[in-house]
Amino acid sequence: MAKFLVQKSGPLEGEVTISGSKNAVLPILAATLLSKEDCVIKDAPALRDVDVMCRLLESLGAAVNTDFENNRVEVNASGELHYEAPYDLVKMMRASILVLGALLVRTGRALIHLPGGCAIGERPIELHLKGLRALGAVIDEEQLSRGIVDARAEGLHGNDIYLDFPSVGATEVIIMAASLAEGTTILENAAQEPEIVDLANFLNKMGARIKGAGTDTIKIEGVQQFRGVSHHVIPDRIEAGTFMIAAAITGGRVLIRNMVPNHLKAVIAKLRECNVEIAMTEEGVLVSADQKPIVSTDIKTLPYPGFPTDMQSPFMALLTVARGPSVVIETVFENRFMHVGEFNRMGANIKTEGKAAIIPGGKQLQGAQVVATDLRAGASVVLAGLVAEGTTEVSQIYHIDRGYENFAEKLRGLGANIMRIEE
Ligand code: UD1
Question: What residues have CB less than 8 Å from 21, skipping those under 6 apart?
Fold first, then answer.
């Protein structure tokens, strides 16, 4: 299995260009199943998760052409589709559940074994199912008790749906199903993430009538069919945030191209509290930490527009070296502190208590053998390795490959000392 060897690096300097968003392209690819015409997705990042989604679409009966060198995926789902998602693909990626709504619309049935994915606690899907039931789907309860979603619908009907929690995946699945249902759906307490807006823009280009995406109330008027379209995926805000922290933690100065600052308001505000200078320029966002020492701050993760849970572990890497103690509170996921054990092996001395992590800060980290326990945790131990004395060996980096395009190459381009070793 592949590993990263990370050595203490000087201040990162130069420019980096952010790739298309993983979390936007996955639902958009699932949504291509809703059209019987050609769809072209541009700026699709070359990632393991995107590849898995393409293979899933293919196994469901779509013709998929990938040109990852040019970040382009073409999908044609005009033929008959199968209703069952193969377990060997679904178990590789939790986001496979995103095909649920589109399969129901196209085939009248969706059969999916509940997936694994990031090891970050319970990740139930009862909200996805609540929404689909409200639109008229019938879920086999006995199968569900065995971890299999078997949903059937002979035609979906619009309805009013309230989500108990603004789940990103549930919002996306419901929007997809409701957009070709008969009548109007009002989805309340919807997730407001930029990726939801990108999905709605994509669907609207195809002919959907979706209003309010990006707010907590989304109105979807069902239409009868979709045309094929071409779409550019938005930049990956979590990748952008990770590179902002790479610049900050090394005391560097990095220009980040292809980043939408509005998507990262909470992260930018928190970095500024830590003394990081952030300037919006015509070419991109200039992140400088070469003037003042990094100081501590507290973080609480929340649904968008709050501080993103996916930035929690990368930000914690910064707080381990910041002057002064910090508290990080994780409210979105249970059990999303697996990286704490890895940071502690490097000398961070973090304590956790329920949803809170207490970080003493001000540490000189030491290189160690650490594990990428999930996608974002993996990126965060690499960040810590950039400032740790000696060598940090990061194993299980297939997690990082799921979500960061050319992570090591991009870091090396900024002067980081990181090598990939295939074993
Ligand atoms: C998406 C992102 C992921 C990000 C997360 C939260 C993708 C492919 N992944 O994941 O990177 O970390 O949003 O920003 O876009 N929940 C329930 N019941 C449900 C659904 C969710 O209790 O039916 C809970 C989950 O257990 C979790 C929280 O809600 O604790 C957030 O989940 P959700 O917003 O659904 O995240 P995902 O769509 O899985």
Answer: 45, 194, 195, 198, 233, 234, 235, 236, 237, 238, 239
Is pLDDT of 131 > 50? yes
Q: What spacing in Å lies between the alpha carbon of 23 and ligand 1's midpoint?
A: 11
Give the CA radius of gyration of the chain.
21
Give the CATH number of domain 22-232; options: 3.65.10.10, 3.60.140.10, 3.30.70.870, 3.30.1950.10: 3.65.10.10
Which pLDDT does position 119 carry in this prediction? Answer: 46
Within 6 A (CB) of ligand 1 lie 23, 26, 95, 122-128, 165, 167-170, 191, 195, 309-310, 332-333
Domain residue ranges in the chain: 2-18+235-422, 22-232
Atom number of ligand 1 nearest to Cα 125? 23
Among the CATH numbers 3.40.50.2300, 3.30.470.10, 3.40.50.300, 3.65.10.10, which is that of 2-18+235-422?
A: 3.65.10.10
For the question of residue 39 being annotated catalytic, the response is no
The residue whose CA is least distant from atom 37 of ligand 1 is: 169
Inter-residue contact 271 to 32 (CB < 8 Å): no
Residue of 48, 163, 332, 334 to mutate, ligand 1, most atoms within 8 A of C-beta: 332
Q: How far is it, in rounded angstroms, from Cα 150 to Cα 406?
A: 37
Atom of ligand 1 nearest to the CA of 98: 8
- Nearest Cα neighbor of 51 from 398, 314, 377, 379 is 398
Summarised one tens digit per residue, pLDDT across range 277-291 is: 999 999 999 999 999
As a whole number, mean pLDDT of residues 369-379 equals 96
Q: State the maximum Cα–Cα separation within the chain, in Å, rounded to a whole number.
A: 63
* Substitution candidate for ligand 1 out of 90, 167, 176 with most atoms within 8 A of CB: 167
